[in-house]
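The data layer described in this paper is built around a simple, fixed record for each protein. We quote a single record here, exactly as it is kept in our systems:
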Amino acid sequence: MEKYKFNKEKLEFVEVRRGVKWWCRKIFQYLLASILLAILYYCIFALVVSTDAERKLAKENEVMAEEYEKLRQKLEVLDNTVSNLKLKDREIYRSIFNADPLIVSLIDQSSPLLENIDTTKDEMIVSKSRQMLELMQESASDVQAVFEDINEECKYLGKSVDHIPSIVPLKDFSVGQTGASVGKKINPFYKTVVEHDGMDLLGAVGTDVLASADGVVVESVRSKRGRGNSVTIDHKNGYMTTYSHLGDILVRKGKSVGRGEVIGRIGLSGMSFAPHLHYCVTYNGKVVDPRNYFFADITPEQFREIIAISSNTGQSLD
């Protein structure tokens, strides 16, 4: 539609001619409106309508998330399994074979994947995770092979392994019966810090006390002082164990005893603050920590609890 303007000089309407600027401005307005409308249509389409490619990508993301979770669970189970095996391995090597344990490296903590995990592509993470899972499975097999070798060595050693203290010397022991272990502890009578040379195992009067390994009774003492009624067993391999503050003594000097055999019962003899067994282990005449000689009788989890409780117990019972 043409545009007219009143000319006061000629007293008539004249046609207004549109210049280049007007046309450029008009074209720009149309282009801008078209672009904005296109963006609006695209946003609505993208939010409401999914393409086949998008649906495929969404499905792949779901599968990848499930794969991540499965890998995480497998890694966690394997890591716990290998950790428990390594703990048992250390106990056996240090307590029995007096050798350094086998060190198994599961994952290189300086791996570029771990250092740059935030910028690593998903495909690379999945690939590397699978590789780490395979490495952990191989490591678990290696540790299992070590235990098989130990088993063969034990068979070769024969009965000598039965002479190594390896069980908790109380019948039906629970972690809650753990008391103070070797180290500087507060004496309950004098309230002074003294060296505690054994481990206190709490129990009711009359609880069965067991021999922790095969051996021969070399001392059977009845006393109302010091350690009270006590039994000492020589295991004929450098190890000796002493069981103190007994109520009843059921073995005599010179008697051969087997692992797990009842040798006495918990009492309150000697300077005992409460009914308990004072259990002492020596190797070649030197006091060693009895906690390291329960490995055949407890799980790694129980071992960690025993360590925590006994380490945080500052007062002994004798």
Notes: Residues 175 and 302 are 7 Å apart (CA to CA). The helical segments are 20-48, 52-97, 112-115, 122-157, 300-311.
